[in-house]
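Escalation from tier 1.

The customer reports that the assembly of two entities below gives different structure tokens on two consecutive runs. Tier 1 could not reproduce it. I'm attaching the input and our single run for tier 2 to review.
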Amino acid sequence: MIPIRSVPEVLARARDLSAPAIEAALERLSPEVRLAAEYHFGLVDEVGHRVAATSSGKGVRPALAVLSAEAAGATAEVGVPGAVAVELVHNFSLIHDDVIDCDRERRHRPTVWAIWGVGRAIIVGDALLALAQQVLLDTDAHQFHLRSGAGGGTGGAAARCLAQATADMIAGQALDMAFESLPGIDVDRCLLMEAGKTGALLGCASSLGAILAGAPPATTDALREFGVQLGLAFQAVDDLLGIWGDPRQTGKPTGNDIRQHKKTLPIAAALANADGRAGELTHLLELVELSDDEVARATALVELCGGRAVAIDEADGRLAAALASLDHAGLDARARDELGDIARFVVAREF
Amino acid sequence: MIPIRSVPEVLARARDLSAPAIEAALERLSPEVRLAAEYHFGLVDEVGHRVAATSSGKGVRPALAVLSAEAAGATAEVGVPGAVAVELVHNFSLIHDDVIDCDRERRHRPTVWAIWGVGRAIIVGDALLALAQQVLLDTDAHQFHLRSGAGGGTGGAAARCLAQATADMIAGQALDMAFESLPGIDVDRCLLMEAGKTGALLGCASSLGAILAGAPPATTDALREFGVQLGLAFQAVDDLLGIWGDPRQTGKPTGNDIRQHKKTLPIAAALANADGRAGELTHLLELVELSDDEVARATALVELCGGRAVAIDEADGRLAAALASLDHAGLDARARDELGDIARFVVAREF
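Tier 1 run:
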């Protein structure tokens, strides 16, 4: 695997551009919603006092949106509403997922529902989704005003892309929930779910700046494909970290996904290849609570049955496909290289 | 008050146009989401068998959207995507509200969360909201395809209107939730909340068809104002029915809103005027559980203190304002009259 790299400078540059725009968007929320939203974004504590900016993720999605505008020959600023919108949609889904999964902590802080209750968390997520659409559609209102031209601009097309990605993401989440109650684990179903849950929004982020810039379909399609493939690579890495990740880096116990009975790609692939060991692995995975020894044995079996190799191949193959999709779209060379850097950075986590 | 009328023919006509389009939109949902959504819309039972169409409301919102297109001189069909979108947003909010309010029944059937759990209900609501945006934005994609022209059409402007109304509706809901935990009841705050919860989406529905038809701002603004005022009239009537409604018609016990400690307009207005009786009324409203006699006494006190009269005046005044807003916008005469019929029908429920 590719060695881990330092955070590309481009992530910091995109964050500097998009963070103030995200804050400005959150200011549009009604007071009852805004506090919890700003808390979730790590801007304030639970009583509304400003806190030193805590990490709210690596900022890969906004960086993709900003670079997507530059890749299409526009300025980074053109991509900023896209960066804001994808961050809002991503965080809408996190807030609702925390309710659905009954997760009381995220990024070492209590989740929105754990502080303000399920009802408020539902409302706050809903508000972020509506706001994301407003941010994109308002770019048309501004263009309309500035140009005094008839008809909409590129904001409508961007909003359409985002609404489709949101729908796909929700479908992936629904498939995941249905999956959990099924007895077996199926590799194809697993990949389909991951395409929806992770690929759709990264594909949208990677094309949104170019759509806002009015780029032709060949360009926006190539960028979307880059993001979709990157999303699948990212998810495969996440699945690997969920089993073999270093607890000091993931913040979760060793073999976390096995303890939590998650149906991820390495496990699905191992079961499909298990042959004589299938009985033992299935038995271990069905235990309500696994001891540390049982987790270690199940982890070893998943690797012995090829689950780890399949996920590593998936990550490598998807990364290669992502990079290849950038080659034939007439993109700005510097932005294309920076998109490549982000892709390698995202996939190159240690496990 | 105006006597109750039979359902205007226009509601049936709008339903005939919009119902198949709503069904077609729901077919775009992923299977895991679609069953619960179709169940909620009264199309199937909980295992997916088709049922005889149950009442899923009076269909006022879709009728307003369709008439709004006609009022702007377009065909009813132009307003249909607007009718679908407002119904999807309205039902997204119902599904989430049922979770928030822990309501296990709606229209004499178990609610989505009562059957499939909170997680599924959250996801299904989210999916309907994303779908509503898609339905409007896709009208631009079709126009783009048909006309081979550059830029978007009217779908982007319609989607912007809907996103704003959704945001306002959520703000109203958030205010309502905050309101419940406050000790007092304030008339202004009550009206502000009702403007968000009911006025915003009816205002959007009433202008959406005209926006899709490309009508000028003077027309769409007048139609929106009609809908906002109608929403406030409707809400005042709903508040009256919540206290004085006939249980056989409302399906809820006499004095339901008093039993449930709801902070509605008649109660807020009565408390503001209560003078010497304020102590008794406040005491009754603060009881955790009220006997039938106590409900009857509190109901009588709300009327004695003028709460009923205030709400009736509000309903009448808002209806008059709604009708007045239709006079100066150069609307198609027949559609304008039918909008008036709907407004009088909505407000003329017995109480």
